[in-house]
Amino acid sequence: MMKKKINIANMMPVIILAALFVVFAVITRGEILKKSNLMAIINQSVATIIAGLGMMFVISMGGTDITAGSLVALAGTLAAMAGSSLGFGFAWLAAVAVGIASGLFLGIVNTKFKVSSFMASLAMLMALRALVNWILNARVVMASKAIRALDGFEYKIPILIVLILIIGYIFKYTPFGYYCRAIGENENAMKFIGIKVNKIKIFAFIISGVMASIAGIFAVARVGGASNTMGASFEMRVMMAMFIAAVPVSGGSGTKIYKLIIGAFTILLLESGLTFCGASGAVTQGIRGLVLIGVVYLTQVLKDSSESGRLSRTKVRE
Prior knowledge:
The chain is mostly helical and 318 residues long. It has helices at 8-27, 35-60, 68-85, 88-112, 117-136, 145-148, 153-173, 175-185, 187-192, 197-223, 234-243, 257-276, 281-317; strands at 141-142, 225-226.
C-alpha cells in the first residue's frame, strides 16, 4: 500500500508558526511563552479571526475587500452609541446593519457596475473612515458596561468558536461555499453552467461586511470605547494573517479556514515577539513586510514544485 505524500505547501503555515515560537522563545528566554503573554496574543487575535472569517468568502473568489478597518471603526462607533442609549441588543443590530449595508453596496458596485473589488473597496474604505470622523468629530464614545464585558474570555472565546463552526460549515459544506471557491478557480465556467455568479458575489461581500462589523464590537469592548483612530490598518493585519498562512491571492480551493486561524496567531506572535525584543514600530513594519514576501514566495515555489511533480507522475502513468 502506497503512503500518502505529505504536501509541504499545506504544512507551511504550521511550520512557520512553530519556527517563530522557537525563535522568540530562545531570544526572549522563554518570556514569550508565559501564560499571560500567550493569553494576550490569543486576545488580540479574536477580532482578526472574526473579520477574516468573512473576508475568506471574498478572497476565495479571487476578490478583495479592504474595508475591514474602516468598517470596524464605523460599526464599533454606532454599536457603542446604540448600546449606551438603547441597550445591548441594539448595539448588535446597529453593527450588523452597517455590515449588511456596506457589503451590499460594495457587492452591487463590483457586480453591476463592473468596478474591480480592490478599487471599490478602497473607495469604500475612505468613505467609511470619513463618515466615522464626521460622526465622532474628534471625540471618544465610551462603550456600555454590557459591551465592555464582552472582552472577558468567558464570552469572547465561546462566541469565536461558534462563529468559526458556523462559517466553517457554510464555507466547506454548503453549495454557497463551494460556489465561492469554484468562482475563484474558474468564474467563466461557473457562469457557463448557469450559476448566478453576481448573486454569490454580493452575498459574499455581505458576509464579509457583517463579520467585520462583529469584529468592531469586540474591538470596542477591548479598548472600552470608539475613537477616530480605531481600526486603523486593521484590514492589512487581516490580509497579512491570510497571506502569511499561504491563502492563495487568486482564491480557489486552496482557501481554507484553518490557514486564517494559524495566520492570525502567526502575525500577532511576530508583532509581540518583536516588541519583546525592543524593536521599534518602523522596524516591526519592515520585518512584517519582509516575512510576508518571503513566505508568499516560498509557498509559491513549493506549490509550483508540487504541481510539476504531479504532472510528471501523470505523464509517467500515461
